Amino acid sequence: MQLDSYVPLIESQAKAGREWEVVIIEAGKSGNGFYYPPPVLKEAVPLFSGVRALARADEQHIKYINKDVKNIVGWFSEPQFVDGKIKAGFHISEAAEWLRVLMLDAWQRGKHDIVGFSIVAQGVSRLVREKKGFVKWVDRIQRVDLVDVVVNPAAGGRIEKLVAGVGPKHEEEEIMLENVGDFVEQQVAEQPDSAADSDVRLSRLENELAEAKCRLMLVEALQNSGLPQLAQQKISRRFASRVFNETQLREAISDERDFLARISGTHRVKGAGATKVELGLGGGERTLKALDGFFANRDIAGVPRFRSFREAYVTITGDNALSGQLREARNLTKFTESLTSSSWAEILGESITRRMLAEYNTPGLDDWRKIVSDVTAVRDFSTNRRMRVGGYGTLPAVNESASYQNLTSPGDEEATFSIAKKGGLEDLTLEMIANDDIGAIRHIHQKLGRAAARTLYKSVFDIIVNNNATSYDALPIFDAGHSNLGSSALSANSLLSAKITMSEQAAYGDSVDILGLTAKWLLVPLELEDSAYRLSTSSTLVGAANNAGTEPNIHSAYGLGVIVLPYWTDANDWAVVCDPADCPTVEVGFFNGNEEPELFVQDQPTAGSMFTQDKITYKIRHIYGICVLDHRGMYKSVVA
Predict the structure, then answer these.
(1) Which residues fall within 8 angstroms of residue 445, CB to CB, at 6 or more apart?
(2) Phi first, then psi: what are they for 629, rounded to 5°?
(3) Are residues 17 and 130 in the same domain?
(4) pLDDT for position 214
(5) In terms of residue numbers, what domain contains 333?
(6) What is the model's pLDDT at position 277?
(7) Of the residues 54, 401, 453, 502, which has the fewest C-beta atoms closer than 10 A?
(8) Which of 259-273, 373-387, 407-421 has the lowest mean pLDDT?
(9) For residues 553 and 540, what is the distance between their CA atoms, to the nearest angstrom?
C-alpha cells in the first residue's frame, strides 16, 4: 500500500501514535512452516479481542520465556477478518512511550515495517506433505495467549496505518506532521509554561527522539549483520536505552565478527570485509537432522545422528528426569509466528512422517499406478458417479439432394464409488524412551509407511486378483459377457490369444468401433515370474514350437512389462492390462487430492493417552476410493 510521506492526525498531540490499525496474522503459509486456512482464522477472530501485547526479544518469544508484566506494551481491540487477514486496533500503553516514539518516527519517515506482530496461541495441527516438503496444517486455533511485537514476523503481522483520534481536552484539529521533529516543536510551542519549563520539556522530548532513532538504527544494523542470534542479543543489551552514533555501533559489530572468527575454528568468516558469519545449520535444524538420522540410521547433511533415542528425547524436551511433563520442557512452544520451534511430539512426528513417506514410496508398492488410468481428488464421502457414454457407430451415406438423417443417440451408464478411511494407531511409551528401545522405535515409521502403501497396493490389485464386480453392470470384471475371460495356462500361444481378444474389443454401445487395444502389462503370481520374464524379454519364441531356436518372439517386440504380485495365492492364474492412456481402466480417488497418508499426534498432557497411560499416540489416516471404469482394457485367465 503506497502512503504519502506525511500522515494526517486528527487528535491531541499528546496521544499521537498511540493507536494503530494492524494485521495480526494473514492466511496462508507462514515463514516457519505453519499453514493457516482462511476459515480457521475467520473462526478464531473473537479470540483476539482484548489480547495483550508484549515486547520481548524474538528468541524469548519463540521459547515463550520472560513473560513479565513489565514487558506489556499494549492490547488489541475490535478484531475482524478482512481479505484473508485478521486485523485489529493496537493500543500502545502510556508506559511504553519508547514504542510509541519508535513506531511514529519510523512511520513518518516512510519505514512502515519497523516492527511486526506474532501470535502465541494453542491449537490443533497436522503434518501435510507438499511437492517441495512439508507444512504444518492448522485445523483449529483454540486459544490466543498473547500477540508479541517482534522484529521478524513470519505470518504477515504488520502495521497497516496510524489511526486518528480526538484527545479528551482538545478541539478537533487537522495537522500535517512531516516528521517527528515538527511534532516535538509543536509539543513545546503549545505548552503555556515558562521558558525554562519549555526548555526542559524540549530536552526530554529530543532525548526520547534520539533514543528512538538509535533503537531503529540498532534493529536495522543487527538485521543486516549476519551475526548469530546470541551475538545480536549481546550487542543489543550493550546499546539498549542509550544514545550512540553509527560509528560506535559499526565498530561493535565488527569486533563481534572478529571474535567469532577467532573462536569458530573451521567455521571462519569468509572473504575480506565479510558481512556475515557462516556457522552452518542452526541448532534447531541440526537437531531435526540428528533425529532424522536416528531413524534413517545414518548421518544426514553432515550432522551426527542421535545414537540413543533417550538422548534425542532429553535434548529436544529438556525433560532430564523423564517425567513426561512436556509442558515444562525447555523447547516446547506453541504457535509462535516470528521464528518457531516445535514440541517434542511435533518434532518426532515430523521425523516419523518423513521416514513413513519414504517407506510409503518404496519402489514396487507403487506398481498400482501402472494399471490405473485416473488419479483424482474427491471432495466428500457421498457416491461419486462416472458416466460411460457409447458411440454413434458409422456415419450413413447421404445421397445427392437427400436430407441428412438423425443419428441414433448413444446410450450411457454410470460407474460409481465412494471413498473410505483406512488407518490405525501406534504408540510411543515413556518406557520405550527410558529403556532406549531403539529397535521398536525405529520400526514405527516402517510399520506405518509400509502398512499404508501395502493397503493401497492391494486395494487396487485386488480388483483383478479377486475379480470384483463392476458397478455399471454388476458383472464380474472378467466374465464371458465381457469377452475378457480365459482358462489357459500362461504360454506364448495363450498370451497371444489374450492380446488378440483384447484388441478386438468394441467400444461401449458401438459394436463397429473396434478399439485395437494392446496389452501393456502382464500380471502374474511369484510362481509364474520366470515364465513371464522369458515371454516378455526373450528375442526368440519361448516354448516347444521354437524347436530350431530361431522363431522370433512377438511379445518382446511390443514392450510388454511384467508386474509380479507376491501375495497372489493362485499359482496358475494370470492377467494382462492395456496401457491406461489408451483406455480407461481404474480410477483411484483421494480425499481432497491427498495421495499420501496423514499422521496425527495425540500429546496433550492433561487428556487422552498422554494423561492416562504416559504415551504419545500417533494416528495414521488414508482416505480414498477405487472404481473400475471399463473392463475392455483388461483380460484374465483363470486356470482350473
Answers:
(1) 295, 352, 355, 356, 358, 359
(2) -90, -35
(3) yes
(4) 80
(5) 289-342
(6) 29
(7) 401
(8) 259-273
(9) 5
